[in-house]
């Protein structure tokens, strides 16, 4: 195709305040594009390349009329056509698609699709770095290399690319509903650092309150070479902030990292009567003799206003925040304790906005966590873990009565209320989901995924075993001692009332305490002006009164605990499951105190269980204790503070623990793949061969962790990994033994071995010249931490494995996966082998499928 020539060149002065502030104000925008689509896109499926007929996403150079097959279009064919930007937005302008018929056939999932736009940019200068902002684009390819877009259009995902002299090819991948639009802006830069003040995670300054917290600031290295000995300083002209000086040894070229910077007020701040609503801090970054400065706005509020509190995440030491709305007329009183209402926001909502939707209560703190981002992780995985950390932080900061902690949320946050509340029912006195959906399959069905179409049932069963923990309806039994209030608008067309009705029915049939309030005529986000309180769909007076009247029963006489994944949760009240008989199958413990000297227990798929003394001391008496276990009678003498442990031996339970091998799956060391990213981790790229490929893969995944999870990760070369790193972190390895020194060092101790000729899975040889491999395993150099190997039998296969992200919910990756290059076309249909390691971290036939 002909090149679209742009002659505009922008130059910016280096190392000045003006440069940092102005650098993204004057973009180059391309008006004329080619576009193609739509292609049917299954919900939550990554890695599919719809352009394989003509070289694939990385290589295609389309022309007008070039065609691809798509069953969404009339005749089953779509063609590249011209499209022009309108007010900076590029429409994909699909031709003659009958969206009405598709929606009638498949519901709103029939409207989900992927399309592409292509252009070429003529750079008239020498090699130069540019920042790209691709709003509402899933990703883009610059000269064949993939980079993340700003998929949600939040206007902060500025990523560095290299402009080469002459022609630069651009392919933008856009997902959405019906006919999406995107924008694409190019910002050539001549400075080595870009301080991205569009994505700050900053605390609010509270008048007359000291601050000792953290500030999160993304810094992009817009240089081809690494920066050494970086110094960061933070202060303000007024002197309210303590001057902070932070040193960083190095930053990799063309990377984005969101740095954690301490922020503290001076002693004078609590007494100062600061009238302005913003305090401007000065952030200076010095690197290689150059200085870069940015102004950081800090919101100033009164304590009674909703405000942001920042903290360091236990997961990755990134800066996160929660919003808090203090009680009405709050005054510190050592004797008084307040309830805590944890509130989970919906998709696209900020935590501070969620807190603002409430009216202050005189009886409770309202705390809104973030789910890592406004869209985040559906309050699962990293979102769930951050909620649990915020819960502990709120209890430590504010005068909270632990028996009056409640969980509520709206829309996606309603799902989070179900998900977190049912998995951690013993943490809450009551829960109140509003417009909450049950599960992905119930809400955004997966049936259009290529994996669903091409995948073998046995392989999909492996994936589904991982995903089952997100289905609220599977775990409703855990609400035996958890009162539930369900709020729903009858005309909600975003989360239909079928979800609420379904879950209400399940709880009601179990005889549990549940109230269902379906409000006639109301949609998704709604208010009733005549009702007191804040926005009615989250702050409904009846919902609040339901919460207020309940207290936690931390030692119930009867406990029902169901789980499928001990890495998500293995404890409920006084019951702790240590080991399952069959991994990733439903395990159920029903335990009831019959009297002070007898416990009746039903165990299903449980190999070892403990009954914990803290609660038992309130329920049973010391001395002779009778245990009725699956109708088998055991007796013991029980003393206070003693745990009761039951383990399965030859189909019968007995008192005592099971023997453990050198490696044993425990809740903290269990799998699947995502668990390696739940505790501190680093990316380690190989330098033996294909170093640039491995480094780029690590870069783009680190950038995704930043923009999707507000996260931070250190990227290291394999030669930089020290014994201290091995002791502190899970190691995410990029490259197999041929290209990564650390993978080579570990290869002999791992159950999956990779060579140029194929893969050996335990005792199973799997030949193949283009096999991709991903697996998790306890680190042989430190079995208390994980390694994750992303590799392949060829550079192409290794590249596929390395770029296959799991930083989203609904991913379903097990302990290990071996697949071929057809993944780009068939998703899970490309699996050669997949499964879980057994209880002793060995390959076992019962837990894997080999095609």
Descriptive report:
With 851 residues, the chain is of the alpha+beta class. A hairpin with a 2-residue loop joins β31 and β32. It has 4 domains: 17-190, no CATH class; 304-548, Rossmann fold (3-Layer(aba) Sandwich); 571-655, no CATH class; 673-850, 2-Layer Sandwich (Chitobiase, domain 2), CATH 3.30.379. Residues 1-19 have low confidence and may be disordered. It has 17 helices and 50 strands.
Question: What percentage of the residues does DSSP assign to strands (E)?
Answer: 35-45%
* Level-1 CATH class name of the largest domain: Alpha Beta
Mean pLDDT, nearest integer?
Answer: 95
Report the C-alpha radius of gyration, rounded: 28 Å
Report, as a whole number of angstroms, the end-to-end distance.
Answer: 43 Å
The percent range for helix content is 10-25%
Multimerization status: single chain
Instruction: Name the CATH architecture of the largest domain.
Output: 3-Layer(aba) Sandwich
- Order of strands across the biggest sheet? 22-23-25-24-26-27-28-29
Largest sheet: 8 strands, mixed
Number of helices: 17
Structural class: alpha+beta
How many structural domains in the coordinates? 4
By CATH, the topology of the largest domain is Rossmann fold
- What would you give as the CATH superfamily of the largest domain? Alpha/Beta hydrolase fold, catalytic domain
Q: What's the number of extended β-strand segments?
A: 50
Q: What would you call the shape?
A: globular
Low-confidence stretches: 1-19
């Amino acid at each position: 195709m002909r090149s679209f020539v742009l002659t505009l060149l922008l130059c910016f002065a280096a190392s000045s305040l003006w440069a940092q502030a102005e650098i993204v104000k004057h973009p180059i925008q391309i008006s004329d594009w080619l576009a193609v689509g739509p292609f049917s896109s299954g919900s939550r499926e990554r890695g599919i390349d719809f352009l394989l007929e003509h070289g694939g996403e990385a290589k295609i150079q389309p022309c007008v009329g070039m065609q691809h097959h798509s069953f969404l279009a009339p005749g089953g064919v779509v063609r590249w056509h011209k499209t022009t930007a309108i007010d900076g937005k590029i429409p994909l302008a699909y031709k003659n698609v009958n969206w009405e018929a598709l929606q009638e056939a498949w519901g709103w999932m029939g409207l989900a699709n992927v399309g592409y736009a292509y252009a070429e940019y003529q750079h008239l200068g020498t090699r130069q770095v540019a920042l790209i902002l691709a709003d509402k684009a899933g990703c883009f390819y610059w000269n064949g290399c993939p980079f993340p877009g700003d998929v949600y259009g939040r206007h902060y995902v500025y990523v560095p690319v290299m402009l080469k002299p002459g022609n630069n090819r651009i392919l933008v991948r856009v997902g959405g509903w019906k006919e999406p639009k995107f924008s694409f802006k190019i910002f050539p830069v001549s400075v080595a650092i870009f301080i991205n003040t569009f994505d700050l995670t900053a605390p609010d300054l509270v008048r007359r309150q000291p601050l000792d917290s953290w500030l999160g600031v993304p810094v992009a290295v817009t240089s081809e070479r690494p920066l050494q000995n970086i110094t960061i300083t933070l202060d303000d002209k007024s002197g309210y902030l303590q001057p902070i000086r932070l040193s960083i040894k190095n930053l990799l070229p063309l990377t984005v990292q969101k740095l954690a910077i301490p922020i503290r007020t001076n002693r004078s701040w609590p007494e100062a009567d600061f009238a302005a609503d913003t305090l401007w801090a000065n952030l200076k970054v010095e690197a290689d003799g150059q200085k870069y400065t940015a102004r950081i706005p800090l919101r100033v509020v009164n304590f009674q206003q909703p405000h942001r509190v920042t903290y360091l995440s236990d997961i990755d030491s990134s800066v996160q925040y929660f919003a808090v709305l203090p009680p009405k007329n709050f005054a510190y009183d050592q004797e008084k304790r307040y309830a805590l209402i944890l509130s989970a926001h919906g998709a696209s909502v900020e935590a501070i906005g969620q807190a603002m939707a409430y009216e202050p209560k005189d009886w409770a703190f309202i705390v809104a966590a973030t789910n890592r981002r406004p869209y985040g992780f559906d309050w699962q995985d990293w979102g769930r873990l951050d909620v649990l950390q915020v819960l502990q932080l709120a209890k430590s900061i504010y005068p909270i009565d632990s028996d009056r902690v409640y969980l509520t949320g709206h829309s996606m946050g309603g799902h989070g209320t179900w998900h977190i509340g049912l998995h951690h029912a013993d943490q809450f006195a009551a829960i109140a989901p509003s417009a909450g959906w049950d599960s992905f399959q119930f809400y955004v069905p997966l049936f259009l995924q290529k994996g669903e179409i091409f995948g073998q049932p046995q392989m999909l069963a492996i994936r589904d075993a991982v995903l089952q923990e997100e289905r609220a309806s599977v775990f409703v039994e855990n609400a035996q001692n958890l009162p539930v209030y369900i709020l729903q608008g009858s005309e909600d067309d975003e989360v239909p009332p079928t979800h609420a009705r379904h879950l209400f029915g399940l709880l009601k049939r179990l005889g549990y305490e549940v109230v269902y309030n379906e409000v006639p005529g109301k949609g998704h986000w709604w208010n009733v002006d005549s009702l007191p309180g804040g926005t009615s769909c989250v702050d409904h007076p009846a919902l609040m009164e339901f919460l207020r009247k309940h207290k936690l029963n931390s030692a119930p006489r009867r406990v029902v605990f169901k789980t499928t994944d001990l890495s998500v949760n293995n404890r409920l009240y006084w019951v702790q499951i240590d080991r399952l008989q069959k991994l990733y199958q439903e395990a159920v413990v029903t335990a009831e105190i019959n009297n002070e000297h007898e416990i009746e227990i039903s165990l299903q798929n449980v190999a070892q269980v403990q009954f914990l003394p803290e609660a038992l001391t309130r329920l049973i008496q010391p001395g002779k204790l009778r245990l009725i276990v699956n109708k088998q009678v055991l007796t013991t003498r029980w003393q206070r503070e003693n745990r009761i442990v039951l383990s399965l031996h030859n189909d019968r339970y007995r008192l005592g623990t099971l023997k453990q091998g050198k490696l044993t799956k425990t809740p903290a060391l269990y799998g699947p793949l995502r668990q390696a990213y739940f505790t501190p981790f680093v990316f380690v790229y190989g330098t033996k061969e294909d170093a640039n490929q491995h480094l780029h893969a690590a870069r783009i995944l680190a950038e995704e962790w930043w923009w999707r999870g507000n996260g931070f990760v250190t990227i290291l070369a394999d030669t930089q990994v020290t014994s201290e790193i091995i002791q502190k972190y899970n190691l995410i390895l990029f490259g197999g033994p041929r290209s990564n020194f650390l993978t080579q060092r570990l290869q002999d101790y791992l159950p999956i071995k990779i060579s140029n000729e194929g893969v050996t899975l335990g005792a199973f040889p799997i030949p193949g010249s283009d096999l991709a491999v991903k697996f998790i395993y306890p680190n042989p150099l430190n079995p208390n931490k994980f390694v994750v190997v992303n590799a392949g039998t060829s550079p192409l296969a290794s590249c596929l494995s390395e770029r296959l992200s799991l930083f989203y919910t609904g991913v379903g990756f097990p302990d290990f996966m071996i697949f071929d290059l057809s993944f780009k076309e068939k998703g899970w249909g490309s699996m050669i082998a997949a499964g879980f390691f057994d209880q002793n971290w060995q390959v076992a036939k019962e837990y894997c499928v080999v095609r």
